[in-house]
């Protein structure tokens, strides 16, 4: 206890917790939310979604406790705000954009129209078609939405991470790269709402809601995302229950923070993996910088969904599996099995991580057979079997009952417009012209390369299926990033061809994860099956081999150009991510 009390990190973490609570407890609180529809009034929680017959008017009202006069919200209606009343007075909607935008909504400053204390808001909403509803969220407008307390929190958080990394014996440059990666993700978070740059967020939130409100795990076919293992959703439901007691309107924002924390852990293990492979040297720092700032990896950070837990578990396993391969320490293999168990409990793709862990264990045991190898195997097997049983028991039950099961539980509900050709040419041909002239890819149209496995995989690693920063400057930067990506991927192939024995684990991770992506695309020939986000952790070993391939180049000018291209890729990635917020 005395040792803890003498530790500066303890007091910094305590300050961090106090500032965090102060930020959330000092915010305006929404209460007494009511829906009036067809002359019937009922109590609800925000965010809210209701069924609608189309061209139907409904009213949502709530009380807002204002502690300071800075009241700004992102109001997202489904789908048109007809009128807003504040304390019975009409709020002017003239000139406000987004009042009919059900995806991004409108950023509205109510500061001049509220009073200190309790205020009553009433929204009249017209729904044209489909489900209706309303979300009231804190603004996602970048630095403009940050208060002084937010800046203090960010500073304390980065200092805390720096002290933790120092205790983990990270050197100054790797620590700086990790802190830069965290800072970029924090900035992205300030202008990214729960449904922006996300996949199936509604399905994930419905899964969480069923667990939190009904205290049960839904059947695999009960909702869009219910076929996924429940581990991530159980943890998110626990968070939701706690936050809902205070203010349900901020729950989704807190769930984004949960994903952010997992992404920070993924960064640390990914950088540690590269340092473990290359040592503390300039090429290692370059590889770490490129991986940490990779646009698709950054964009995934504040995304609500089980991808973040899978990334964390996979990179956790990669790092300790590599340590085991190099120094054959028993504890490292047990820790690697924990990583594999986490990945397996998050997504079905975790099965690939488990297979790789098994191969590394078998080959490692053959290299250094020891008496205690059986004990390690039993402990690791217990961890994995326990994880498999707790997270995939529904699949086991379905198999026992003779039901049809598959990797993608909602495959029958996918829109047929996303179907792609499934011929050998789609996996061998690379459409270079389309790749360079159209930087963004879509799962809905062929323009951008969705028909070709490698074209779509590379593009989706950068931007997913989103048209980010849709302006001439953004288009130019996206094109340059696509171009520079080739100077990472091509040296990586060269590095893989000339791999060394110590690089066996990262080689396995690359080979099996890309094979898994191809298998998914072959068995489910939809463009969305080809998305790089399913195998995002492969970035770190892939960039490592790109640097190793560059190191083996004989031509000094070509080697220098390749290094400069990678550095330019990292720099442009940083500019691209930061620039989207302005």
Amount of helix: 55-70%
Shape: globular
- What percentage of the residues does DSSP assign to strands (E)? 5-15%
Structural class: alpha+beta
Q: Please tally the β strands and state the result.
A: 10
- Describe the largest sheet: 6 strands, antiparallel
Q: Over the alpha carbons, how many angstroms does the gyration radius reach?
A: 25 Å
Order of helices and strands: HHEEEEEEEEEEHHHHHHHHHHHHHHHHHH
- Count of helical stretches: 20
In which order are the strands of the major sheet placed?
Answer: 2-1-4-9-6-7
Low-pLDDT parts are none
Distance linking N and C termini: 47 Å
Mean pLDDT: 86
What can you tell me about this protein's structure?
This protein has 582 residues and is an alpha+beta fold. It is 55% helix and 11% strand. The chain has helices at residues 2-5, 8-25, 148-167, 172-190, 201-214, 231-246, 251-278, 282-292, 295-299, 307-327, 330-346, 350-367, 373-400, 425-428, 432-437, 453-463, 472-497, 504-523, 539-551, 556-579, and strands spanning 29-37, 40-43, 48-50, 56-66, 72-78, 80-86, 89-90, 106-109, 117-127, 132-137. The strands form 2 sheets. The chain has a 6-stranded antiparallel sheet, with no helix packed on it. Helix 8 (282-292) runs antiparallel to helix 19.
């Amino acid at each position: 206890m005395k040792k803890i009390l003498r530790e500066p990190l303890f007091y910094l973490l305590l300050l961090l917790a106090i500032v965090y609570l102060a930020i959330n407890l000092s915010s305006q609180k929404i209460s007494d939310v009511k829906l009036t529809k067809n002359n019937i009034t009922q109590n609800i929680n925000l965010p809210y979604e209701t069924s609608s017959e189309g061209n139907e008017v409904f009213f949502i009202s709530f009380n807002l406790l204002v502690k300071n006069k800075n009241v700004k919200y992102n109001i997202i209606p489904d789908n048109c705000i007809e009128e807003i009343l504040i304390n019975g007075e009409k709020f002017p909607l003239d000139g406000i954009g987004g009042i009919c935008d059900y995806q991004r909504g409108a950023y509205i400053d109510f500061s001049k129209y509220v009073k200190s204390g309790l205020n009553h808001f009433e929204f009249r909403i017209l729904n044209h078609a489909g489900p209706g509803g309303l979300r009231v969220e804190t603004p996602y407008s970048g630095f403009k939405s940050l208060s002084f307390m937010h800046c203090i929190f960010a500073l304390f958080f980065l200092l805390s991470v720096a002290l933790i990394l120092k205790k983990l014996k990270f050197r100054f440059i790797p620590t700086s790269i990790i802190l830069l990666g965290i800072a970029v993700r924090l900035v992205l978070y300030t202008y990214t709402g729960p449904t922006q740059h996300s996949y199936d967020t509604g399905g994930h939130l419905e899964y969480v809601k069923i667990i939190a409100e009904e205290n049960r795990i839904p059947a695999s076919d009960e909702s869009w995302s219910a076929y996924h293992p429940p581990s991530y959703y159980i943890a998110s439901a626990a968070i939701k229950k706690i936050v809902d007691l205070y203010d349900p309107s901020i729950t989704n924002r807190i769930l984004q923070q949960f994903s952010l924390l997992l992404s920070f852990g993924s960064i640390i293990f990914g950088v540690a993996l590269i340092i473990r492979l290359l040592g503390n040297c300039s090429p290692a720092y370059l590889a770490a910088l490129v991986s940490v700032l990779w646009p698709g990896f950054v964009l995934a950070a504040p995304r609500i969904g089980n991808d973040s837990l899978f990334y964390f578990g996979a990179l956790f396993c990669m790092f300790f599996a590599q340590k085991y391969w190099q120094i054959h320490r028993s504890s490292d293999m047990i820790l690697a099995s924990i990583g594999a168990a986490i990945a397996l409990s998050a997504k079905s793709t975790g099965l690939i991580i488990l297979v790789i862990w098994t191969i590394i264990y078998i080959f490692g045991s053959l290299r250094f057979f020891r008496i205690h190898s059986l004990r390690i195997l039993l402990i690791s097997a217990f961890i994995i079997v326990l994880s498999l049983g707790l997270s995939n028991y529904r699949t086991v039950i379905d198999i026992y009952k003779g039901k049809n099961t598959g990797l993608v539980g909602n495959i029958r509900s996918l829109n047929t417009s996303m179907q792609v050709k499934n011929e050998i040419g789609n996996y061998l041909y690379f459409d270079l012209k389309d790749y360079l002239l159209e930087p963004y890819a879509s799962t809905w149209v062929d323009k951008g390369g969705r028909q070709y496995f490698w074209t779509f995989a590379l593009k989706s690693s950068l931007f997913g299926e989103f048209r980010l920063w849709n302006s001439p400057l953004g288009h130019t930067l996206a094109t340059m990033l696509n171009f520079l990506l080739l100077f990472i991927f091509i040296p990586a192939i060269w590095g893989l061809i000339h791999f060394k024995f110590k690089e066996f684990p990262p080689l396995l991770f690359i080979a099996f994860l890309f094979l898994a992506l191809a298998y998914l695309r072959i068995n489910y020939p939809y463009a969305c099956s080809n998305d790089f986000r399913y195998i995002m952790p492969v970035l770190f070993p892939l960039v490592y081999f790109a640097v190793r391939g560059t190191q083996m180049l004989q031509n000094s000018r070509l080697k220098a150009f390749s290094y400069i291209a990678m550095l330019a890729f990292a720099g442009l990635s940083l500019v691209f991510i930061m620039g989207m917020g302005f």
